[in-house]
Amino acid sequence: MSPRLDTPATPSSPSSPFAQVRRFSRAERWVHRSTAALMGVCVLTAACLYIPQLAELVGRRALVVTLHEWSGLLLPLPVLAGLASRAFRADLTHLNRWGPHDRVWLRKAVRRVPGPRPAAKFNAGQKLYAAWITGATLVMLGTGLMMWFTHLTPLMWRTSATFVHDWLALTIGIVLAGHIGMALGDPEARKGLRTGSVSREWAEREHSLWRP
Amino acid sequence: MTTEQPHEEQPDGEQPHGEQPDERGAPVGRRVVLGTLGLGALGLVAAPALQRGLESFLGGAAGKDPTGLTGLLPNGGGFRYYSVTSSVSRKDASNYRLTIDGLVDRPMSYTLDELTALPQTRMVRDVQCVTGWRVPDTPFEGVRLSRLLDAAGVRPSAGAIRFTCFDGAYTESLTLDQARRADVLVALRMQDKDLSHSHGGPVRLYVAPMYFYKSAKWLSGITVTEKVRPGYWEDRGYDVDAWVGRSNGRDDEPTA
């Protein structure tokens, strides 16, 4: 699955600033898009259930609850469906495995050292985010199901599930805002997820160890 | 475990230039996923203790917080606004009516002024919501429901009450015995102020010993019936007999 029709100049002029390199397949882009849409519905409905001003504005509590429950339940589906794609599975491997350069990247990022930081296809920040949001989503799913199907778990668990669900929701909201903020600050990264290709110049600058 | 992929060989296909720098190396991603799951499980176990600590800390902080931002935190204290409809019309002394009908000898219709003129009862209890939040020592003031029922003359065949609201959707229910309790009010005031619209004003039900969904906001109708007809949330799974601490799978401290 590698139709490189929109990569006009890769082999002949690798140094041309207009050269494009392939970053994400169509399947991967759809996994990201549908996950983002479901997460968006989840977060917006959560806000309408939770923030008094929005709750007062929107009302319709039973409908908002239903939307929230179903978007949350469906949230893992795009990733599970994506496992059918070889490119997506390969990227999961890239996200999972950490090399020495990732520690360098993290150290420089934490200490705000200026200058380039070494990264392969994904930098250490992206790897950390991907893994954390996966775990957090599963915890939200588990605690959400405990609150939804209240008769399936022991009674005391439900209050605890509400507690974890509430505080983790707040944390996810903050981290997600960071994720979106980073994307807003990097148009070329966004283009990668929109069209599947990025400029060679960007790839060499941001992901120096990546060999596309 | 979605980021967890076996360390599989990829001899062909997507990697024409051979090995990538991050195909080997420690599976830190998988560890972070598992670690997050572990922390979530730990949070579940530690929740009761953590919650008590945070409630007392945030409850204290909320009192000194002029921005009101602590109210947005979980367990930050204060009331939360829940409505089951998109918008609720506003009513005041000029157009509010409370009707009492069903199995009664004398169906009644009260204006707000007529309700205000009746003897008022003031109670100070905690408010406990079934979703977890609790507001301590909240004064409610109004007419005992039993007084209104006696004035209408409940027939012997009656066994329950159905409450309807002018939001057009919400309903509630009580057995006749529950409705006759001294701590069940048709409330006109809350926190020593006239009930505001967002708190269910001008008139709401107040059932002190039960979870707060029983205390229907925007009360407009009291119908005496033979049997209990479950209310709005009760049709959606909540308990009809909603005693605080003894229903809905919760063990909160009783409020009355």
Topology:
The complex is a heterodimer of chains A (212) and B (256).
Chain A: E1 20-22, H1 26-50, H2 52-58, H3 61-74, H4 77-82, H5 86-96, H6 100-110, H7 124-148, H8 155-184, H9 187-195, E2 197-199, H10 200-206
Antiparallel strand pairs in A: 1-2
Helix pairs in contact in A: 1-2, 1-3, 7-8
Chain B: H1 28-63, E1 98-102, E2 108-110, H2 112-117, E3 121-128, E4 134-144, H3 145-152, E5 160-165, E6 171-175, H4 176-179, E7 184-190, E8 193-194, E9 204-207, E10 219-225
Parallel strand pairs in B: 1-10
Antiparallel strand pairs in B: 1-2, 3-4, 4-7, 5-6, 5-10, 7-8, 7-9
What would the keywords be for this entry?
heterodimer, A: 212 residues, mainly alpha, Fumarate Reductase Cytochrome B subunit, two-stranded antiparallel sheet, 10 helices, disordered N terminus, B: 256 residues, alpha+beta, Sulfite Oxidase, Chain A, domain 2, 2 domains, five-stranded mixed beta sheet, five-stranded antiparallel beta sheet, 21% helix
Question: Can you describe this structure?
Answer:
The complex is a heterodimer of chains A (212) and B (256). Chain A has 212 residues and is mainly α. Chain A is built from 10 helices and 2 strands. Chain B folds into 2 domains: 45 residues, no CATH class; 139 residues, Oxidoreductase, molybdopterin-binding domain (Sulfite Oxidase, Chain A, domain 2, Alpha-Beta Complex), CATH 3.90.420.10. In chain B, the strands form 2 sheets. Chain B has a 5-stranded mixed beta sheet with strand order 2-1-10-5-6. In chain B, strands 3, 4, 7, 8 and 9 form a 5-stranded antiparallel beta sheet that branches. Chain B is elongated and about 85 Å long. The N terminus of chain B is likely disordered. Classes of the chains: A mainly alpha (212), B alpha+beta (256).
